[in-house]
Each structure stands twice: as structure tokens, then as C-alpha cells.
Amino acid sequence: MKIWNFLKRLNARGPAATAFFALILGFIIGALVIIATTAVVLNAWRHVFSSPTAIFSALKVTFDNVGAAYRAIFIGAVGSPSAYSHSITTGQGWTNTIDPLSETLTYATPLAIASIAVCIAFRTGIFNIGANGQAILGGIAGAWAGSMVHLPTALHIPFTLILGVLGGALGGLIPGVLKAYAGAHEVIVTLMLNYIIAFFLLYVTLSTALQQPGQANDISRTIDGSAVLPPIFGTGSGLRVSYGLFIAAAVVLFGWWFLNRSTLGFDFRITGANPHAARAAGINARRVIIFVFLISGGLAGLAGEVQMASTTHFVDGGFLIGSAGVGFTAITVALLGRNEPMGIVWGSLLFAALNVGGRTMQASTGIPLDLAAIIQSIVVLFVASPVLVKEIFRLHTTTEAVQLATKGWGQ
Amino acid sequence: MKKTRVLVTRVFFVTTITGMRVELRGVTKRFGSFTANNQISLTVEPGQIHCLLGENGAGKSTLMNILFGMLHAEEGEIVIDGQAVRFADSGEAVRRGIGMVHQHFMLVPVFTVAENVVLGFEPTKSLGRVNHRAANDMIHELSSRFGLDVDPDALVENLSVGLQQRVEILKALSHDAELLILDEPTAVLTPQEIESLMAIMRSLASAGKSILFITHKLKEVQAVGDVITVIRHGEVVGSVPATTSEADLATLMVGRDVSFSVTKEVVEAGPAVLSLRDVVIRDDRGISVVNGVSLDVNGGQIMAIAGVQGNGQTELVEAIAGLRHVESGTITLGGRDITNKTPRQILDAGLGHVPEDRQRDGLVLSMSIEDNLVLNTAHFRPFAKGWSRNLPAVSSNAADLVERFDVRTTSITADVGSLSGGNQQKVIVARELSRPLTCFMAAQPTRGLDVGSIEYVHRQIVEQRNQGLGVLIVSSELDEVLSLGDRVAVMFSGQVVGVVDPQVGRETIGLMMAGAKPE
Amino acid sequence: MSVETVEVTKALKQPHGRSRVIAGIIVGLGLFVALVFGLGSSGRAKSQFTFSPVNLSSNAPWHLGALTVNTRGWNVVLGVLIIALGTEVWVRRPRAPMLRFGLSSIIFLFALLFWACRTPGPSQIPFVNLTATLAGSVGIAMVLMYGSLSGVLCERAGVVNIAIEGQFLGGAFFGSMVVSVTNSFLYAALAGALFGALLGWLLAFLAIRYMSDQVIVGVVIVTMMASLSSYLNLQVLTPYPNFNLGNTASTTGIPLLDKIPVLGPVLFNETWFFYLAVALVALVSFGLFKTRWGLRVRAVGEHPKAAESVGINVARTRYRNVIMGGAVAGLGGVAFMATQGQFQPGYTSGLGYVALAALIFGRWKPSGAVVASILFGLSAFLANGLQSYSVPVSSEIIGMFPYIITIAVVAGLIGRVRPPAADGVPFKRS
Q1: Are strands B179-183 and B98-101 parallel, antiparallel or unpaired?
Q2: Chain C contact partners (≥3 CB pairs within 8 A)
Q3: ipTM for the complex shown
């Protein structure tokens, strides 16, 4: 109960607790989903009235299954405690022990970058749901720059990174211009662009210009070694976490500086909080809209580039498509992190862990990875409804102003 | 078909019964720690025009929303004809014979007059279809009986404000209202429209309807009221007959003797700093609302624009600030042409702008006081260094301005939204006056402020003028215009009827506000 | 008074610049058709139009021969037709240039098909089957009708339902399961509508009671449904394929009417999902614009405070409409599944969002939404149909077509429209 009181106090201090409680609810509902779809568990409950002790065995089966799934997520994302104790006592096998952690960081790297991209847009009152498409464009541009242009490493990496940014910015420019000059609602435009870009991805990976020579499938050329973001612990270590992590850290710092310390970011925040006052204060709304899409798109593109250059080293027709869509997860991370760069660091680590651990869960228990996405959506539903969370946990309701991040069609 | 008949008989029934006696007993309403209404009691007799007089923010609207069932009181009761009632929502209040004409009209702009009038009480045909013919018949009947002429098939958005108000009254009457609440009905009307509204009120009262007339304008109260209840800070401070003198009413209303006269030294007017020539402006619907305005604001002079709201002043101010397109004509500021320049260019040319809707256009409520104080200067030295903001400079600026302009706050990092209206206005005034200006323009500078803040803002404005700044004030408060202005320009129907000395008196200026040309 | 009214009507006309842009685009399309598809094809080339329905051919009571025309001449005529439409927009500045744009793009696509099937030419298929083309596009149009009708119900009451895509997926998933088990599309429809209504309730609950951001909640409901249906697909449908047999609904001909040439097989020999969609459109249209219910719903969507002041319960109205809208979208999901067969994760491929565009295109009116759905359906089907004609454009580019049109619609490139005034704005009782 001490913890309970601590959390209640935490709640009085700010929205961080809302996120925390939303996570708890997400995992509880995730558990219910597992229960409802696992035959063993359902069977155990079907016979619950057959004997007095059946309820205990049913409960045990339930906890075993849910526990196994969540334990698999934890081990897959952080590593197993036994492996840690083994490595600590013997000093051996560190690579295997921290490999899950390395994977989580690998996943979190582009996720954090894309989340900052989404966050900057949100703070300007713009819902950039097209970050995923922009990231794909960044990946394509990076793949082109990495495979078709040949430069020494010192130049090649920055060149591919810049091309990735430009690719994403180009993808952001379209909704930006359409919103600034035609008043098109960015949500629909960016959503549709995601589909268009998915087709474009297929198109370029099948085009003679970018297709891997000798391949008939939708797969691009592999980038030069000089354009690869190398693993921090060396190529031979087997740990994938790359120098992209430092890029992500730099982007988080940039996001913090931009929103809190830059004059342009100040304009963005004014526009997001009160567009009328922004206009009267001499801020050019069109300029802000186009800039925010350029910056947000550019960062999303960088996320795609980093993803490509540190893990796959090429793009194929499934690059960031479907459940691999880092730009979609980024929306949930930005909301979970309450659109604060520091919140995003925690949020992206958490959701990266959930996704990486989810793969282990799928492999060891057969529960599909989609569970991670389900939990994420539920968490965000709750984060978007703070009053509901407070009611569920009977917390003291502070009058937290509900601030809308998006606008209806009626401008 | 059955429903239609019921409706029509109801309408006839109205004339045969005699009014309604409504009592409020000890009504108390709190919003958090703020008490909006404290132990308010009053009685409206049948056929009586009962005026509720009080300053903005005194709690009049809250009280009426309670009576109309839109808010619920913590304490006290509403008694109708000796029977205590409790309304869950406004629909119940309407069914119990209470009608309300809101300050912001409760009309759906894209609906016709008839649709608006019957909404919620629609006569229907088979299959739940709305019976438009029955609705139109009813409106014709009501309009001819009370002299409220309006076309039932017109779209409300195409009607003038005065006509829209008529629709509101019709709507209340169609629901068999015995008590009609009119919330600040005159704020948006021309003098003639006010006259005809008052005539309507008298005829309704003589037909036995009770009327609760909410206003903060002393003259109207005296012209039409039977009984006047004055409230201040959410409490009843007196219930007096309509014969009470204006000065006494004012004293009751603000709690001390007020003199609106501002002491001003004589200052030699300088050259024109802001000049308008044949300015034409359209509103959002494309209707031309400013039709060829020419005006000069000189340095060291306060030019006050008087006029009933809705005669083009709002759009004129927006156009000067660069927030609205100028169809034709020119605006020059300090010799520079600023016609259709961006707000940024106009701010840089030296225009200080206190917008009419300060929470919408002047402030970002969720941001701190210090940020709001540099809202339009954040890109300039010393508040910016390159692309970075210079936060120490922002803070010291805020500390300085909060001190100088007497903004009452616990901290400069507090959200502006946590300040009172008066202090919010001081933040805007402080920000605008902290820049080098050529001309200072303030729209409705004291609307909704407490007396202390009004005096403070007035003093600041006069001081700027004494230092040689050109000042343009737009206000629908005649007293403010008369006491502040060195020259008074009266706007009517998108045109400046004339520019006169305030000494010509309120009578003349009142006539001009109705469109009469000065001699 | 009268002067003001005149001014207002004038203001409602499309502004000059925008009309000119639209007109320019249309004229450009027309020139392209006339020059490239018309004059660009050989003077000897012929195009063939056929009318026999594929599935009725054996017992069709009528037989229309093929219509063979000169490709060049025919396409020049079509091009001139489009140019005429564009000129009309330029000169008259109509309030609804959308319809003209829609027509132009349909004509454009047909011209493209003529050009693609010309003989001598590169195409394997030397004709265009009008009946099959129309019949094929009806399937997509029907799903879009359900989706945009759902949008009409929600947005007229002031709630943006961007979750239609999620409701489609949910409806399709449960529809497929129920029909596989019961072999009854009636039960499937009920299950899909019920599940859609549940999702509608969730949106309403969060948007109305907790005033959460409607767009965010809507988008998250879509991601939730995408992942949930994919999860359930792997957990339930894959191990038990009997739950996902992929039955498709059979068509029911309407006696006599289905014998009408061309229109018969297109409109009167459809599944009852199609007839239901048409009936729902008529019903909602009547309800919204003729009845007391509709007047109140529209009042809530335009000016909730005004509605509340006359005793209309804004929250209840919104709940009811959003739940109904969810049910309609859920039905749409079942209808989609009934034409496409076996459920696959994510197989509605953004149709729910396209339906929103159709809603905007149709100016928040059920009838407008139908026209828009037909235009979208036709263009999507024609674009896909092109792939079998060896057109020198890759299928990936053609696949983008419906989405590009959707963007053009919401960007207002083809005319701006006014949404319900309180659309997407949470209502707080004072």
C-alpha cells in the first residue's frame, strides 16, 4: 500500500502517473486477450465446476500462460536473470547475456528519432500520421545514396544520413504544402501518402535503377560498407546496436533544444497552443506548417535511414510495412511520452522492449507478436483519456485541461 | 396530425392565462473556490419587467443559466407560482414556461427560421416527418400577434443580428414562455433596434408576460424597467424602483462613487501617424462591412471610435493589424504603406495592438507570463541569440514589466490562464507598450475588467498619449469613448458618420451612432 | 435585406482562383485525352466495346453486339467532351465543380481503356466490357457507401469517425468467422454490425464522456483493430481454418429488372448487401433531412449549445449516432468480406479512409456520398482493370490512383465544402 500512496502522490505531480497507470491497464487487457485466445486456459476454465480444486488449477494454468508470455517479453527485451548472474559470476558469455538489451536499443534507435519527429508536429498542433511513409522515403533515399554513390566512410555516412533526411522532408513537404495552401486536413493526406509510398517502395525496389542485380524480387541493392552505421561493439561482436544510438541521442537533444530553447520552436508551440494568437503575434502560419512538416518529415526520414543503415543495409518491399512500421509506433510513443523529449526516451525504450520481447514471446509461446501492438494501442487509448484512467484507479482528479492535439475538418 | 393541433391550441391558450410569478430564494453557485452567486433572492411578478443590473462578471449570466436549468445551484431554490421546482436541463425549464434569449444566440445558422423556432418541439406528420406547414403557420400567427415580423423560410445566417434576436424571442414565445429572460440583448443592436426591442418588451409585458432583463447599461434599465435588482460580486446589493437616479445605480453597481472622467493634460497634437483612406473591408461571408473609411490618428492624440458593435469596427481593427484583407483603400503607419502587409511587417512598423478578444488573439493561455510577454518579440534582441532564445533576458524582461504594470501574480512562470481578466489585459498592454511604437491601437480595452483595472488601463493609455504616441481606441462603451477620446469618430454601418469633439455631448454622439450626420 | 442575400449567394460560389485551377486541371485532362489517346493513336486503330455480362451470358434474354469504333476519332470526341466540362467550370464557376471533375476523370479512364485495348495494339484483350467494368466497380462502391454513410451518421452529429477502417476490419473478421460457422450471411451481418457498434460505442464513450481527441482515438482504434484482427487471425483462424472458409455471398436477381441490358446485371443482380446499402442510403437521407430525428441530429452537429438549450440531449444524440455509424461500418466490413472472401489481416487496405474522402466529396450528404462512392469505385476498378491491358505504366503506379484522388478531394483541389460546424469539437455542458 505504500507503493499505492506513492503513486497517488506521483499523480498529483503530473501526467507521468497517467502513463504509468495506462501501461498497467494495457498489460491487464493484454492478459485478458491471451486468456481469451489460448485453448489450454479456456479448457481449464470450462471444467472449473467439475471439482472443488478445479478453480485453483484453472487459475494456475491462467497465470502460467500469461506469466510465460510476459516473462518471455521481459527476457527477450532485457535478458534473463540467470544469464546475468552467470555472466557476473564467471565473467563469461556477456555477448549472449546482453544481446536482448542490444536488440531493444537497436529497435529503440529509429523509434526515438521518429517519435521526436511526431512529437514536434504534435506540439505545433499537427498530427503527422505519415511519419512511417516519410521514414520509408528516408530509407529509400539512404539506400540509393549508400549503394549508387561511392565515397569514403567519413563522407559516405553523413551523405546517406543527409539524403535520408531530404527524402523524408520531401515526403513531409506534400502534406505541408497541401495544408498550408489548400487547407487539406493533414491526417487524411498523410494516411493516403502512406499507401502511395508503400506502392512507391514496391516500384523502386523493382525498378532497374535500385533493384538488386540478379534479383526478380522487390529488393534493393545493398549499401556499401562505407555507408553502414557500424555496430558499437564491432562487427564481430554479434551485437547489433549501432552508432545510430548516438544519432538518436543527438536527435532527442535537438528536439529538446528546438522545442524549449529555439525561437522557431517557440513559434511552433505558440501556433500549436493558439493559432489565432500566433497570427496576431506576426507568426506566419503557412511558414510554420511547411517548416514543421519539413522538420518532422526530415527526422522521420532520418529514422528510416538509420534503421536501414544499421540493420538491413537494403530496403525491400516490406521495409517498415505492417507491424514493422516504426512510424506508427512512434505516434504511440509520442503520446505516451506526453510529447516531451525525455518522456519519449522512456516511451521508446519501453515500446522497443515490448516489440523485441514480443518476438521472443512469439517464438517461445506461440502467442503472436501482434499482442505488443494491441497493448500499445490500448495504452495510448488510455493515455489519450486521462480522466478515465483516474476514474478507474479512483485517483484524485486534478482539473487537467483537455488539450486537443488535432482539429476537426472545420479548420 | 394530432401533434399539430395540440401545438396550435397551446398557442391560443397563452393569451388566456395570466403570467407567472417566479421567485429565486437564496441561490448559491460555486465554481471551485470561486463563488459566482451568493444567496441571491429576487421575485419577478407577472407582467413585470424586472431588470438585473450588474457589471460584467458580477454573476448575472450564471444566475440566469441556473434559472434556465443549464447550471445547477448548490443551495437555494426556484419557486414558480408558489411551487418549488428543479430543472434537470433547460428543456424542463422551457416546458415550465421559461424562455431565454441568450447573449450568444442559440440559433443554428444553416437552418431556416422555422426550423430554429420549432427545434426540440417539432410538429410532426406521419413517419416522424417535420410538419413545415404547421411550423410556418404558427410563426405567422405569433409574429402577427406580437408584431415580430420575420420570414419563416429565410436562412438564419442570412439575417441581420436584430432579426436573429427576433427569431430567438419568437422561439421562446412559441414554447409558451411566461417568463422571458433577455441576457444582454442590446449589446449587439443599433439604437433603433434597441428602441424596437424595448417596444416589444413593453407589449409582451402588457400581455402578461414576465421579463427578466439583464444588462449593465443604466439608461436602458431606466427606460424600460419596473423593478431593478443590482448585483455585485455575486450578491444582491439592492432592489430599487426604476426611478432611481443613474448616479445612484452606478454607485450600487460598482460599490463606490465612480467618475469616468479621466484627468488629461492638454497636449498639442502632432502629425498624423496612422492614416486610413477609403478603406473597404469584407467580412468572412464576403459582405462588405467597412465601406470607405478615412481617418487620421495624430501623435499625442487619442482617437476614439464609437459605435454599436457590429458596425465594422472589429473588421477595421483587424485590417489595420494585418489580420484581415483590405479590399481597397490604403492604410499608412508612420508614413509607410501597410495596406495588406503581413502582421509581422505591421508590428515591425510600430503598431501596438490590444485585440478585442484578448484570450483568442492576444495570449496563449497555456504558456507562462514571461513567454506571453515576448510573444511577438521573441525573434529579436535581446530575447534571441541567433536561433536560440535568450531565456535570462526573457525572464528579466518579465520581472521588469510585471513590476511596472502592476500585474498581480505569484510568479512570472505561472500560466497566463491562471490570471484574472484584468491582469491578463495588463500583460498584453505591457507587452505592446514595451516595444518602440508609432501608434497604439486598443479594441474594447476594458471590456470585462474590474473597476481598478479599468482605471489602470485608462491611465496607461493617457500617459502614452501625453508622451506623444498616437492612440486609436475602439469601444462600444460610450462613457469610455467620451472620457478618453480627444476626438471621437462614430461608425455606423461600415462608415464614419463624423469625427467630433467629445464635448458635443452624449446626446449628439448617440444620434450619430444611429446614423445621423452631425450638423 | 435582399442586397445582403445576393451578396451571400455570390460569396458561396467558388472563389475565382480555385475555379480556374480546377478548370485548368480538367482542360488539361481533356487535352491529354485528345492529343495522346486520340491523335496519338494510329488512324486505323479500332477499339471495341462489348456489353454481354460474363455471368449472364448463357441465359441472357438479350444480346447486344459489340460496338467497334475508331480509336482516334472516339478519343478525340471524349477529349473535347472533357474540355467542354472544364470550360463550363471556367466560365460559370459552379458551386459543385466536384461532379464535373469526377465525370472528367471517369471519361479519362474510359478513354485510357479504349486506347489500351486498341487493335492493332500491344494488348492481349482487344475489347472493353462495359457491363463487367461497371459490375466490378459496384463491389468497391458498395463498401464505400457503407463507410461514408457511417461517416455521415457520426459527423452530422459532430463526431469525427476516423475509425471506419477499424470497423471495417472488425466487421470483416467476425463476419467471416460467423458465416463460416453458421453458413448464414444474416448472422454474419448481425455479428459484424454488433461489433462495429461496439467500436462505435468505444469512440463515443471516449470522445463524448472523456472528451478525448476524436482523431487520435479514431486512429488508435484502427491500429488496435489491425493488430487485434491480425493476432486473432494467427491465434484462431490459422489453427482452425474452418472459421475462415471464405464464403462469398451469392447474388439475388430482382425479377424483370435484372433483364435490363447493361443496368440489369450491374444494379439488379447483386448480393443483398448491395440492396441493403441502397436502402440504408435512402433511409438515412430521408431521416436526416425530413424527420424530427434528423433535424435534431443536424442541430447537434451544427450548434450543440443551441440544441441543448431546447432540451435536446447532445450526448445521447451523439452516442446514438456514433453507435449506429459503427454498426453501419461494421456491416460494410461484412459486405466487403462477402465479396472478397477469406479474411486476411489488413485487407481493407485503407478503404475506410477513402470512404471518409467520399463523405467529404459528397458534402456530408448520403446522396452525395453515393455519387462519390460510385466515382471512387469506378476509378479504382478501372485503374486495376488497366493492368490486364499491357498499359505502359507499372501496376504499382496505377495502384496509387485511388489514394491520389482521395488526397485531391480533401485538399479541396476540386472545390471546398463546409463541414458541420461542430464536427470534431467536444461538447462540454456549461
Answers
A1: parallel
A2: A, B
A3: 0.84
Q: Quick count: other Cβ atoms within 10 Å of Cβ B53?
A: 28
* Three-class secondary structure of residue B349 per DSSP: coil
Kindly report the nearest CA distance between residue B58 and chain A, in angstroms: 24
Identify the burial level of B69 via C-beta atoms within 10 angstroms of its C-beta, where 0-12 means exposed, 13-18 middle and 19 or more buried: buried
Instruction: Let me know if residue B199 belongs to a domain.
Output: no
- DSSP letter at C291 equals B
Out of B109, B127, B288, closest to residue C291 by CB? B127
Helix axes A370-383, A16-37, angle to 10 degrees: 140
- Beta-strand ranges (E) seen in C6-101 are 46-50, 67-70
CB C177 within 8 A of CB C244: yes
Name the domain boundary from B256, B282, B316.
B256
Residue A29 near chain C (CB below 8 Å): no
pTM for the whole thing? 0.84
Chains that touch A (3 or more CB pairs under 8 A): B, C
Interface contact flag, C421 A410, Cβ < 8 Å: yes
Range of the structural domain that residue B119 is part of: 106-175
Distance from C-alpha of C87 to C-alpha of C138, rounded to nearest angstrom: 30
Classify B335 in phi/psi space as left (phi over 0), alpha (psi -120 to 50) or beta: left
Domain edges within chain C: 3-126, 136-370
Q: Are C330 and C170 spatial neighbours (Cβ–Cβ below 8 Å)? A: yes
Q: Is B108 helix (H, G, I), strand (E, B) or coil?
A: coil
| Residue of B313, B285, B304, B277 lying closest to B493 (CA atoms) | B313
Binary contact (C8, B287; C-beta < 8 A): yes
Task: Say yes or no: B430 and B454 in one domain.
Answer: yes
CATH number of B471's domain:
3.40.50.300
Are B375 and B407 contained in the same domain?
yes
Which run of H or E residues covers position B289? strand B288-298
Contacts of A276 in chain B (CB under 8 A): 357, 360-361
Q: Please list every residue in chain C whose beta carbon sits closer than 8 Å to the beta carbon of residue A272.
A: none
Whether residue C290 lies within 8 A of chain B, CB to CB, comes out as: yes
Alpha-carbon distances, residue A307 vs A235, B40, B178 (angstroms) = 16, 67, 72
Q: Which positions 377-406 of C are in contact with A (Cβ < 8 Å)?
A: 394, 396-397, 399-400, 403-404, 406
The answer to the question of residue B293 being in a domain is yes
Q: Best of A262, A266, A268 to disrupt the B interface by mutation (most B CBs within 10 Å)? A: A266
Ordered per-residue pLDDT tens for chain C, 430 residues: 233 333 333 334 445 566 777 788 888 888 988 888 888 777 778 888 777 765 554 455 566 677 788 888 888 888 999 999 888 888 887 766 767 777 888 888 888 888 888 877 777 777 778 787 888 888 889 999 999 999 999 999 999 898 999 999 999 999 999 999 998 899 999 999 999 999 999 999 998 888 888 888 998 999 899 999 999 999 888 888 888 887 888 877 778 777 777 777 777 778 889 999 999 999 999 999 999 999 999 999 999 989 988 888 999 999 999 999 999 999 999 999 998 888 888 888 888 988 988 888 788 889 888 888 887 888 777 777 777 776 777 778 878 877 887 787 777 655 556 778 888 777 776 5
Put simply, the answer to whether C4 touches B160 (Cβ < 8 Å) is yes
The verdict on B252 and B333 lying in the same domain is no
Q: How many domains does chain B have?
A: 3
The single-letter DSSP state of residue B231 is E
Q: What is the pLDDT of residues B296-330, one digit of tens each?
A: 999 889 999 988 777 888 899 999 999 999 999 99
Number of Cα atoms under 13 Å in the Cβ half of residue C238: 13
Question: B265: burial class by Cβ within 10 Å (0-12, 13-18, 19+)?
Answer: exposed
Closest CA to B464 of B493, B435, B443: B435
